[in-house]
Amino acid sequence: MTDTDSAAGSGRRRGRNETEEERADRMWTELIQEVRVAQMGVQILFAFLLTVVFTPKYDDLSDTDRTIYLITVVLGAVTTGALIGPVSLHRIVSGRRIKPQAVRWASRLTVLGLVLLLATTASSLLLILRVATHDGFVPYLVAAVVAWYLLCWFGIPLWTRHRHTSR
Q1: Could you report how far apart the first and last alpha carbons of the chain are, in Å?
Q2: What is the pTM of this model?
Q3: Closest Cα to residue 76, out of 127, 142, 136?
Q4: Which of 4, 72, 76, 88 could lock onto 46 through a cystine, CB 3.0 to 4.6 A?
């Protein structure tokens, strides 16, 4: 029987035996690893978006598609800000003995960044599919992809948290 099993059987608290500072250190390391994955995706997408305006095809876009493009670029910019924010936050508050609070704020920025990344990706997909196909099914396809992202990024994690969190 493991310590976790015996702890669960005896009614004691499960999990790590760590101080608030140790927990904050661990959570910070985990958060930064997660942010690196999201940052890479948003930076590649944002870089691509910034180049579109300089292509000959941009001049052929309809007013609606140009509006979608502008919204997408702004979403990409604010997403980048939200996902880089935790790094700046850590650098500015480092050594001030407020890591638990910094981790909470960095976590909030990361979740906000993920929501904004979802919006940026959906907007990008909408623009690309509108230009590529001009078909009426595009909004439905984009909605299906957004639903898939919501399930993968939020639905399954929230269900897992609810299902497997001790009370």
Answers
A1: 22
A2: 0.84
A3: 127
A4: 76
* Closest to 75 (Cα-Cα) out of 42, 106, 53, 97: 42
pLDDT tens track for 55-92? 999 999 999 999 999 999 999 999 999 999 999 998 99
CA 70 to chain centroid: 21
* Tokens matching residue 147: 């639903």
> What tokens were used for 91?
């650098």
CA distance 64 to 120: 16
Q: Where on the phi/psi map is residue 137: left (φ > 0), alpha (ψ -120 to 50), or beta?
A: alpha
Q: Give pLDDT tens digits for 149-162.
A: 999 999 999 999 99
Cβ-Cβ contacts under 8 Å for 77 (sequence gap 6 or more) = 46
Tokens, residue 120: 């940026």
31 contacts: CB under 8 Å, gap ≥ 6: 86, 103, 106, 107, 110
pLDDT (tens digit per residue) in 95-115 = 898 999 999 999 999 999 999
Q: What integer is the mean pLDDT of 27-39?
A: 92
Exposure string over 25-42, b if 16+ CB within 10 A, otherwise e: eebbeebeeebeebbeeb
